[in-house]
Amino acid sequence: MAHAVEKHPVTGIPANPEKATLEGKNKYVAFWFFLGGETVLFASLFGTYVGLLNSGAPEELRSYNIFEMGLVFLMTMLLLTSSLTSVLAMMNMKANNPGRMKFWLIVTLLLGAGFLGAEIYEFIHYYHIGHTFTSSAFGSAFYTLVGFHGAHVTFGLLWITTLLIRNWNRPIDVYNAPKFYVSSLYWHFIDVVWVFIFSIVYLLGMVS
Amino acid sequence: MEKQPMNESHKQLELEVKAESRREYQLQLISFAMMILLTFVAFGAVYAELMPVWAAGGFLIILAIIQVFLQLYIFMHMNNRGNTWIVGMMWLGIFVAIITVAALRLLIW
């Protein structure tokens, strides 16, 4: 670190520890740029899905016959709540409460794991009724889009777990705060993508 | 060295920090409540089959866009001071995303 950063007299760490150093600022801005790129990447998958909706699928394997609203609603609630707990973790990080930050991050991880478990259950169910990656163009587009989101959730879980283990006994400082903050941005972005998935893939698939 | 004298001005500062954090907390909770509400409206409308099929797409997408804006601007603090480049790049991403979806939608049949 090139120079000392000003500490907040109450919390004992800088007011925005994730952006207090040049390195932190660079990570913050660069990560947002990455999310801008991810937006386009997911858009290409959404466009493909919308174009291929129900294409090549037999009547009993079409979107309005296979999607279960209850499970999707549960998954939505899990992920949405995990986005809030991630916010609470970051608020506690800025207030220099490492214990509470870790608690809320663990809650976030548990909710995320619940979501992932439900998604795996859903995919296994589809596999058994014959809706697979290779069963139709609709199947390919569906699994590419939803599976890619699921892979993001998996990566986010591993990322936050690694950060927690690595920094478990460390105080919050300008070195690890940007790491936590950027991982929470990633987690919110996963929820941003899911909002479009539950609206466009599932709900729209049920009415079409 | 690090110890702060517990004088009046420090106490005042502590109160200000607490008030600020309470405001932030309330804002985040209100935002979360609105997201839950939007989700319920979206699922409820489909569950109760309230909409004609032609209107469902536009309605659901508008609800999704509102919810995503709450995520970006309140949960993720995209509009913080000094985020000009971030906002610019995100909007560029959204712009290209819209063109991508529209193009693929029109090209595949």
Automatic annotation (TrEMBL), chain B:
It is a multi-pass membrane protein. InterPro entries: Cyt_c_oxidase_su4_prok. The chain crosses the membrane at residues 27-47, 53-74, 86-108. It is found in: Cell membrane. It comes from the Bacteria. Keywords: Cell membrane, Membrane, Transmembrane, Transmembrane helix. Signal peptide: none annotated. This is Cytochrome C oxidase subunit IV family protein.
